[in-house]
Amino acid sequence: MKVTKGRSKSAAILFGALLMGAFVPAAFGQNPKLDIQNLEPLAKKASEVVDVNLDGALLRLAGKFMTDEDDREGLEIIKNLKGIYVKNFEFAKPNEYSQADVEAIRGQLQTPSWSRIVSAQNKPEGETSEIYLMTASDGGTVLGMAIIDAQPKELTVVNIVGPIDMDKLSQLEGKMGIPRLGEVGKESKKVEGHHEKSK
Amino acid sequence: MTTVTLPQREEALARSVRGDATAFADLVQEHQSMVFSIAYHFLHDRGRAEEVAQDVFVRLYRHLDSIKSGDHLVFWLRKVACRRSIDEVRKLPKAPPTSLEDVAEPVAELPATDPLLSRGLQRMVASLTDDARAVIILRYQEELELADIAEILDIPVNTVKSRLQRSLEVLREKFHRWAGDV
Amino acid sequence: MTPFEEKLRNALRREAAPEGFAERVVARTRRETQPGAKAWWQFWAFVSARVFRWALAAAVVCVVIGGGLVQRHRQDRLRQEGELARVQVRQALHIASVKLNVTRKRVQEINREAPSSRL
Q1: Which residues of chain C neighbour B28 with C-beta distances below 8 Å?
Q2: Using the beta-carbon criterion (under 8 Å), do A198 and B172 form an inter-chain contact?
Q3: Within this chain, do residues B36 and B71 fall inside the same structural domain, yes or no?
Q4: B76 and B146 share a domain?
Q5: Using a CB-CB distance cutoff of 8 angstroms, which residues of chain A are in contact with residue B146?
Q6: Is the pLDDT higher at B49 or at A21?
Q7: ipTM of this model?
Q8: Strand duo A142-151 + A195-196: pairing
Q9: pTM of the model
Q10: What is the pLDDT of residues A10-62, one digit of tens each?
Q11: CA atoms of B170 and B176, how far apart (whole Å)
């Protein structure tokens, strides 16, 4: 009798969990927000750091101040997002960060929820660039995006939480002060707010 | 300006405490530029800055016996100058928002010491909140380390760091909008 | 220091105090520490006692005005926060857009050079 009751109870719990799974993706590994805090110690070694942590509330606040003509496209992109997190480090010398630093991020992207949609590697130069997308189980709605760009003297991780439109993001080129691809060599100098570390 | 050595400064301080008016005048002359500049970069008004700077030195005269050393004097003056400047900013009616249109736009690349560029930046600094202004002035006018700024303003170092970072980003954005990629 | 910080440092370099500043300070300290100044303070204490009721009323008015100033201060802070957030959004979108396009371009180049080794 006890065993039967126990089995019924377990089945009920399992059914409830599966039901919740349909409505609470975040609780079951479908959390598009990455943990990139492990990269923070790299700031001490970097000559230039960009560190952006904008949750939904801050994005809403920012949106109220994005009233210039050239903010229009950016505002359109962020309007339904829940978070934007960026860590960008530039180093004076190569190999100032380890592969373990990058693997700690990449490891979070190995779950079934994430799909690597683009990957470019140049092993002799030590360059890797990857783009990951998390989509809902219906395969349609984008839940988040991650970009890892690892260069010998620069490491960038971008994590966007929410329905990001990649085409619109890509088309920002030439707007909002973003250089066109031909000018990309100067990109790190033109990033607004790029700062050297405080002493 | 006559350069004052450390022993001379300590001696002037000791004589001031004993009531030597000439020694006190020497102390004022040595530090007047620092105190006046803190007030001026806060208020962007020479008249008000002089009033504030005078208040600071008058207060110093009343508290001379609490000053322990030349270094302590400099610390004390910076602290009181910032506090007095913040009080002055808060008590008077709010000035109209800083209008960058009031400062002519540069038409060509500006050298680093161009007065037009400096005036523009000074106005931008004067448009920051009081707390942010204090951090920026102590960092770039007085060239202090973050720990020293934290001690003067009596706030945690991390608060100094985040205020500094935020203020620099706001200033950069304003500056780029005004001057382009100067 | 970045070039921008250098510009800031130049803009915020110390200014000379106005001519005669030290003399005015010394004169003022003499005035405010004279025996006459003491008498002036005693007179003020006498007057203060008589106008206590008015001082209380003024204090109430100050609290009300102060509340308004605090509110304005909060609004200023919010404006600062909002402007900073805007700058950071632009930064982030800038980096994301550039990296996205650069990665795609690298893939296109790799595919052009060696289509059989497509990732």
Answers
A1: 21-22, 25-26
A2: no
A3: yes
A4: no
A5: 198-199
A6: B49
A7: 0.81
A8: unpaired
A9: 0.47
A10: 666 655 555 555 444 444 457 899 999 889 899 888 888 889 999 999 999 99
A11: 10
